[in-house]
Structures are given as structure tokens and as C-alpha cells.
Design goal:
By secondary structure, the protein is an all-alpha fold. It has eight helices and no strands. The protein folds into two domains: 110 residues; 150 residues. The two termini are 38 Å apart.
């Protein structure tokens, strides 16, 4: 089952990347996006089947039911978008959701017995720290590019032209910013999920209440990045608005780090 989960997670990640990076007309990734998502759905279905064999059917817990529900949504999207090309923009949203639902179903679908709980908790905490580290690094770079874009765009609006030998254009900065956000958002999302699970296993809902600042900030960061990705896929949002959404996400992430520092 673990091997099926790994293949499904990799396929969902690749599909997320292909749907995002293949938004331009004529992009070779456009044709692979639905194929990758279909492969991810097949591995996801196989993972659920393996869980059923182990006695963990989809209606045993809310996490397993969520995993199945999102898989059904992905299957419906693949069927509808086969002939309705404008619907394919929703793949940029469903692919990351599929990865989250798959992870929740596997990690939380079957809680371990008490003797092994500490070991699993340690592994989960290490995974959270690693994902958060990558997320912080990625968002720092994305926010830096977004800030540079806003600065250059403001100078152009004010007709403050300056000679430059860097060869960096606004369009190039926008594309670089998009790729960074596209790559870091799934990692940051998994960091939020694993961090929440660590808190729940440490002290239940009371632990979550004591970390309300981090949870609210993480929610704002996730909504800002999700809005940026979905809006670009559906409405073609880019430029200043997309850059400001990244700045909002970065400030929220910085607030999480400050809160962690104060508590420690």
C-alpha cells in the first residue's frame, strides 16, 4: 500500500505542476496534465482498495471518506473535461486537493496503537519540519520576486526608466514568480496538514486552540496562494494582483514564525 501511495502522491504532484505550467497556448505540458491526473486517480483508487483489504474501508473514518469523495470529484472532472475544454482549468485546483485528501486518508485513516504512537509522532514531526523549511525558503524567494516585480512595474507606471543590463523583463519576472508559487504551494499545504496533525496528536483540540494565531495565519497564507493559482488557471490573473497575493501569504508565514519564536 505504501508504494501505491507514493506513486499516487508523485502523480498528483506532477499533475499539479503540469496544469499550472501548461496554461500558455501551445505548451507541451497541456496534453500531459489530464493524463497525469488520470494516472494519479488510478493509483489513488488502488490505494483505497489496498486499505479496504486491510479493513480500513472509506466509511470507517471521516479522513477515509474524504479521500474517496475527492477521488470521485477527480473522476467526474476527468469525464466532464474530456469534451469541454474550458472545464480543464479546474484541474489546477483538483490536483492539489487530491494530494491532500490522499495524504489525509493514508496518514489519519488508521491511527496506530499506543506502543508505536510515539515513533509515528516523531516521524510526522520531522516531516512537518522538513516541509515547513522548504515552504519558508520557497515563499521567501517567491516574495522577493514579487517585490521586485512590483518595484519594476511601479517605475514603469511612473515613467522612471533606468538602463539595465540584467535582461529581466516584467513578463519574465511574472513567469518566474508563477513557477515559484506553483512549486512551493503543495509543499506548504502539506506542511500545514502535518503541523495540524502533530498538534492534534499532542493535545487534541485544546492544543489547536492555544495555537489559533498560527492556524489563522496558515489559513490566510493557504487561501492567498490557492486564490492566486485558481484565479490564474480560470481567469488568467497575473501581474500586480498575483504578486500582492504572494506578499500576503509571505507576511502570514512570517507571522507563524514569529509566533513560534515567542512560544519557544
Amino acid at each position: 500500500m505504501l508504494l501505491l501511495f507514493i506513486f499516487a502522491a508523485l502523480a498528483y504532484g506532477a499533475a499539479s505542476f503540469a496544469f499550472g505550467a501548461g496554461t500558455d497556448e501551445g505548451s507541451p505540458l497541456k496534453g500531459w496534465a489530464r493524463v497525469l491526473l488520470a494516472g494519479a486517480a488510478l493509483f489513488h483508487l488502488s490505494t483505497i482498495g489496498a486499505q479496504c483489504v486491510d479493513g480500513d474501508h472509506p466509511f470507517k473514518s471521516v479522513y477515509l471518506a474524504t479521500s474517496l469523495g475527492v477521488l470521485i470529484a477527480v473522476g467526474g472532472f476527468l469525464a466532464i473535461s474530456a469534451k469541454r475544454r474550458p472545464m480543464r482549468a479546474l484541474g489546477a485546483v483538483l490536483a492539489p486537493l487530491g494530494l491532500i485528501a490522499l495524504t489525509l486518508g493514508v496518514v489519519m485513516g488508521k491511527l496506530p496503537a499506543n506502543p508505536t504512537l510515539a515513533a509515528v509522532q516523531g516521524e510526522l514531526l520531522r516531516a512537518h519540519i522538513a516541509l515547513a523549511t522548504v515552504g519558508v525558503s520557497g515563499f521567501t524567494l517567491a516574495a522577493g520576486v514579487a517585490g521586485l516585480y512590483l518595484g519594476m512595474e511601479r517605475r514603469l507606471r511612473n515613467k522612471q526608466f533606468q538602463p539595465s543590463t540584467s535582461g529581466i523583463s516584467l513578463r519574465g519576472l511574472d513567469r518566474l514568480h508563477w513557477w515559484l508559487v506553483l512549486l512551493v504551494t503543495p509543499v506548504f499545504t502539506l506542511a500545514i496538514v502535518t503541523g495540524t496533525m502533530v498538534s492534534l496528536r499532542e493535545g487534541g483540540t485544546q492544543m489547536l486552540a492555544s495555537r489559533s494565531v498560527e492556524l489563522i495565519a496558515a489559513g490566510v497564507a493557504f487561501l492567498a496562494t490557492a486564490a492566486s493559482l485558481a484565479s490564474r488557471a480560470v481567469w488568467g490573473l497575473r501581474g500586480r494582483k498575483a504578486a500582492w497575493l504572494t506578499i500576503v501569504a509571505f507576511v502570514s508565514m512570517a507571522l507563524i514564525l514569529v509566533s513560534y519564536g515567542i512560544r519557544s
